[in-house]
Structures are given as C-alpha cells and as structure tokens.
Amino acid sequence: MGPLVFEPLLYQIRWGGRKLGTLLNKPIGAAQDYAESWELADHANGQSVVARGPLTGITLSELVRHQGPELLGVHSEQNQFPLLIKFLDANDWLSLQVHPNDRQAVSYNPSENGKTEAWVILDAEPGSEIICGLKPGVTREQLAEHLHAGTVSEIVHRIPAAAGDCFYVPAGTVHALGPGIVLAEVQQQSNLTFRLHDWGRLGSDGKPRPIHVQESLDCTDYAAGPVDPVTPRELGDGEHCFEELVRCQHFVIRRHQGINPFHLKLGNRFRILMLLEGSATLSTNDSTSPTETLKKGETTLLPACLHEAHIHPESAITLLEILLP
C-alpha cells in the first residue's frame, strides 16, 4: 500500500463561494456556493474513494476494515478512520454553532462521535473575523436569554482572522466563521452540529434552517471562555525545524515550511499531508511505490506500513502533517 490520494467530496451550502476551485484547484462547477471539500471521510454522510493507483475505487471504510494494520499501524483497533479532513470556503457567516463531546454525542446518535476540531487559515480577506468561544463568565442562563432576545452577538468572542492563524476548537466551544476565509479543518470523524443562531436567514427552500437551542445549551462548555489563535511550538533537530500547532487527545497538527528537503519517520503511524502552498515530490522507502507529486490543495494519506517518507520541495512549501497522538 503506497501513498493514497482520494477524490474530494464537494458540498454546496448557502455560505460557500468559488475559492475551493480558484485557490485550491478543486473540480467545482459553475455554482457560486461551494462550501466544503471533504478530503478524507469515513462517515455515513460522506465516504472517500481512492482516486488513482492500484487501489482506485476502494473506499476508505474498506481499507480500514480489510487492511487496518497496514493503514493504521498502532491504531489498527479502530473500526472507523478516526479523522475527517476538510477544506472550507466561507463566503458568508456560518451559523453560530456548537459540537458535542464523545459522551454527549452518543446520547443524540449512537453511531456518532464527538467533534473537536482545529482550523488552519489559508486565506483571509481584510476585515475577516471569526467567533470562537463566549466572553468570560457567560453562564447558561445568560446564553439562553441572549438567544431568546436575538442579542447573542453581544456575548460571543469575535476576533480578526489572518492567514497562518490556527485555532483549536474543542467540543463545547461556541463558534462561527465569517466571510472571506478559506481554511483547512482537522476534526474527529463526526458530522454532529447544533445551531444556536442562524442570523435570521432562510435556507435554500425558503424556510428557516433548524435551530437546536436546547441541545446547544446542553453541549456548551461555559468554563472554556474565549479562544484565541494558538501559539506554535517550535520543534526540530537543527537540520529541519517545524511547528507543532495542536496536540490533543484526538490529533496532532504540525506545519512544515520552506524549500529544504526533509523526511518523516512514521513510527508505525499513518500520516496525513495537506499541501497548502507550493509543490513538492514525495518518495518512500517502498521501492514499489512511484515518486508522487504533491500539489497545492491536495491531501495525501501515508499508510503506517510505509515507515518513512521523503519530501522534496520544488518551491517554498507550507505543508500540514496530521497524525494521532
């Protein structure tokens, strides 16, 4: 099993735009509302399929079931690929929303997981903003009152967004993306979202979209407070330095930047590579695997059985490396 690239799953939602195509080279159509590209998904709402090579047409779910040890290595006890990887284009405000944790998720849907996520911003227009967390000290009662009064924007943490920022968004964090933002999202394999507020908008059917006030109030973490961009942690051996952006119980995100070649020792753990800028070639210790080209906007899954991968930038790159802790 060599490096794997999957067909993107493209979703049109009213807040989407055109940048998944113009910035990330996704095969979008003529519509103006392309919102999400699911790069790696093993979910009832979306299943990734291998795009090329000897395993073309095989789903990610089938690989987990039938080749789990080769794909997942030390995490081969998983019966579902644990992460959902996306690109998002926010051309309008997303709804104000919150996600449950693992314990809460199964009470709403026994087949779902909690949804802790992280964002790495690729592009942000001047004046772009996000909402991430509540203002300090906001209680359940206050949130309920402001939702009822339509004044919830007064108690949320609203901050500017800039290219390169990374936000860690644990389950229970009230959040929303504002217009003009394109980002990479790493999250648990889950599609369970509760809307607190939708800014008074109507859905494509001309009716208000469902609002989940009680579920949102139950799942919000009132002790968490406001969330600001993470402070990257510098790591490396002197020969190759990189940043660790997030380390939590669900995933680790590292960012590699520059022009110099480097290698990754997989340690019997799969890796996900998302090329955000530039171009590079990828080779592995598996002599049967041809050299791969890493393209901007493409996501590559390195099975654990490869042991080692070598990245050779052709121009200055920004590359996310994602793994389980």
What does this structure look like?
The chain has 325 residues and is mainly β. It has six helices and 24 strands. It has helices at residues 19-22, 60-66, 68-72, 102-108, 140-149, 213-219, and strands at 4-5, 9-17, 34-40, 42-43, 46-47, 83-90, 96-98, 117-124, 129-134, 156-160, 166-169, 175-177, 181-188, 194-197, 233-236, 241-247, 252-258, 262-265, 271-277, 280-284, 292-294, 299-302, 308-313, 317-323. Strands 1-22-19-24-17-16-15 form a seven-stranded antiparallel β-sheet, with no helix packed on it. A six-stranded antiparallel β-sheet has the order 2-3-6-13-8-11, with no helix packed on it. A hairpin with a 7-residue loop joins β20 (280-284) and β21 (292-294).
- Sum up the overall morphology in one term: globular
Main pleated sheet: 7 strands, antiparallel
The total of helices stands at: 6
Strand order of the largest sheet: 1-22-19-24-17-16-15
Radius of gyration: 20 Å
Beta-strand content estimate: 35-45%
Number of strands: 24
Query: Structural class given helices, strands, pairing?
Result: mainly beta
Distance between the termini: 22 Å
> What is the string of helix and strand elements?
EEHEEEHHEEHEEHEEEEEHEEEEEEEEEE
Mean of all residue-level pLDDT scores: 95
- List low-pLDDT spans: none
The helical percent reads 10-25%
